[in-house]
Specification:
This protein has four helices and three strands, in the order ααββαβα. About 6% of the residues have low confidence. It has a three-stranded parallel beta sheet with strand order 2-1-3, sandwiched between helices.
């Protein structure tokens, strides 16, 4: 079985999820953060689901925004699974799959009150 890996490092995972990424006016969505992704515009995950793929995610998916207002039953990145293994357990033999791992792990060790110590005003 051939495996594919798509790496996308930015902190805004909503952009690559949409098949019309970056064309917000076409989607009639003008917000940058906390927007809505209308389900009438297919994203790559929904296209894979339509093609018979099992799709799922763990941790952060499409965000920030309100996917329910857009008409989705679950996050547009896929149904939430507690682990990659849980997705594989639901997979039918030979079924292709896509798994979105949206880590919420910090990029560095967190030190309390670093902003205050560095005189950042809130």
């Amino acid at each position: 079985m051939k495996m594919r890996f798509a790496h996308h490092p930015p902190a805004r995972p909503r952009e690559p999820l949409s098949s019309q990424a970056g064309i917000h006016i076409k989607m009639k969505v003008l917000e940058i953060y906390w927007s809505v992704m209308p389900d009438k515009f297919p994203n790559w995950v929904s296209l894979l689901e339509d093609a018979g793929y099992l799709t799922g995610k763990n941790q952060k998916g499409w965000a920030p925004g309100d996917f329910k207002r857009g008409g989705y039953e679950h996050n547009p990145a896929g149904k939430n699974y507690p682990s990659f293994e849980a997705l594989l357990e639901e997979r039918k033999p030979g079924q292709p799959f896509s798994y979105w791992f949206g880590s919420t792990d910090p990029h560095r060790n967190y030190e309390t009150n670093t902003g205050v110590k560095n005189r950042h005003e809130i």
